[in-house]
């Protein structure tokens, strides 16, 4: 299998790792922080961010069909703070996971509302009090796309990936979060009309 490369990851990995650095060092020693990533895709964020955050132990995960490609990045990088990927489907039973924080990039718009709710419920169940759930990706505001690019992405997702997928509105995300005992504590602007939502477990 040819090593998969996401061009978007190459563009957004530095802003994401910079933001994670600042968020994860607040109020806690970064030394031996455990972080679960959901929907790691190619594994590029795992490898890049783990290099930038050497005190974070990064646990990648995704559906099994992405593991072969992801392992090429992980094995090549030879980092002692990236663990072997877990098979994790937000809609199925999760393996036992102990983590301080959870990160996910570009998954919330990729899955249905029901799957988002499943993900939030399970994340809330594994996060300790004060743990962060950090979500990167496009988000609608007041029912509107924030760019033409996001509107096109939404149309493509519904046509080509899953008719139930699509960019979610901030209000919907906040409501699901609230139902799951998670509070939005930050909403950072990121390149290319993406956001970094920072939710905290009560
Ligand atoms: C658009 S890709 C994002 C990949 C990577 N995080 C990135 O930013 O490049 C969406 C990811 O969500 C994963 N995914 C889709 N459905 C999922 C599910 N039910 N449970 C867990 N992951 C899922 C896909 O396998 C894919 O890796």
Notes on the protein architecture:
With 202 residues, the protein is an alpha/beta fold. It has a domain of 135 residues: Vaccinia Virus protein VP39 (Rossmann fold). 38% of the residues lie in helices and 21% in strands. The protein has six helices and eight strands; from the N terminus they run αβαββαββαβααββ. The strands form two sheets. It has a six-stranded mixed β-sheet with strand order 2-1-5-6-8-7, with helices on both faces. The protein has a two-stranded parallel ribbon with strand order 3-4. The longest helix is centred in the N-terminal third of the chain and has 18 residues. The chain is globular and about 45 Å long. It starts with 6 loop residues before the first helix and ends with a strand. The model has no long low-confidence stretch (mean pLDDT 96). Bound molecules: S-adenosylmethionine.
Largest pleated sheet:
6 strands, mixed
Instruction: Tell me the Rg in angstroms.
Output: 16 Å
N-to-C order of helices and strands: HEHEEHEEHEHHEE
Number of E strands: 8
* CATH class category label of the domain at 7-106 and 113-137 and 188-197: Alpha Beta
* Sequence of strands across the biggest β-sheet: 2-1-5-6-8-7
Which structural class matches the secondary elements?
alpha/beta
Please identify which CATH superfamily of the domain at 7-106 and 113-137 and 188-197 we are dealing with. Answer: Vaccinia Virus protein VP39
Rounded to the nearest angstrom, the distance between the terminal CA atoms is 43 Å
Low-confidence stretches: none
Q: Which ligands, by name, code or SMILES, are bound?
A: S-adenosylmethionine
């Amino acid at each position: 299998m040819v090593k998969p490369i996401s061009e978007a990851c190459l563009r957004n990995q530095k802003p994401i790792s910079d933001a994670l650095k600042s968020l994860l060092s607040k109020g806690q020693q970064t030394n031996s922080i455990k972080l679960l990533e959901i929907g790691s895709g190619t594994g590029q964020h795992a490898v890049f961010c783990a290099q930038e955050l050497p005190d974070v132990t990064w646990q990648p995960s995704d559906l099994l069909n992405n593991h072969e490609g992801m392992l090429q990045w992980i094995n090549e990088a030879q980092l002692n703070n990236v663990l072997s990927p877990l098979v994790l489907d937000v809609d199925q039973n999760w393996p036992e996971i102990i983590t301080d924080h959870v990160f996910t990039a570009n998954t919330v718009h990729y899955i249905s509302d029901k799957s988002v709710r499943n993900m939030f419920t399970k994340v809330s169940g594994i996060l300790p009090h004060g743990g962060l759930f950090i979500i990167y990706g496009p988000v609608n505001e007041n029912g509107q796309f924030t760019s033409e690019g996001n509107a096109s992405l939404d149309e493509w997702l519904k046509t080509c990936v899953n008719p139930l997928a699509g960019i979610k509105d901030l209000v919907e995300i906040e409501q699901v979060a609230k139902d799951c005992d998670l509070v939005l504590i930050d909403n950072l602007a990121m390149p290319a009309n993406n956001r970094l939502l920072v939710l905290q477990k009560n």
